């Protein structure tokens, strides 16, 4: 099944969320389980990068292809896909960061246990 050009970007963002969702459950990333913290993080990202984009669009340094967007434009000339990007990619990044941190924490814990066990045998 081919995805229409205008929906490819949204499909890519959905795929990013689907591919990183298991990190919440398999590695205990605890991103979705702390919704207030997530929303606070997303609001900062959304605000900063939306302003950046609006300035770049106004200065003629940045534009969006009507072919690859849904043509749903939000205030200040931002396409819906851009706002979705500013929400999805930080969520994926936070999930990845938290999952990697949990893995490192587990490895450190196992290493400490190994040293403790080895130390007692000597």
Descriptive account of the structure:
The chain is mostly helical and 122 residues long. It is built from three helices and two strands. The chain has helices spanning 5-26, 35-58, 80-121, and strands at 73-74, 78-79. The chain has a two-stranded antiparallel ribbon. Helix 1 runs parallel beside helix 3 (80-121) and helix 2 (35-58) packs across helix 3 (80-121). The radius of gyration is 20 Å and the shape is elongated.
Key features?
single chain, 122 residues, mainly alpha, two-stranded antiparallel ribbon
Structural class: mainly alpha
How much of the sequence lies in strands comes to: under 5%
Strands, total number: 2
Shape designation: elongated
Pattern of helices and strands: HHEEH
- Give the distance, in angstroms, between the N- and C-terminal Cα atoms: 63 Å
Segments where pLDDT lies below 50 for 5+ residues?
none
State the strand order across the main sheet: 1-2
Tell me the number of helical segments per DSSP (H or I, 4 or more residues long): 3
Q: Give the oligomeric state of the chains in this entry, treating copies of one chain as homo and distinct chains as hetero.
A: single chain
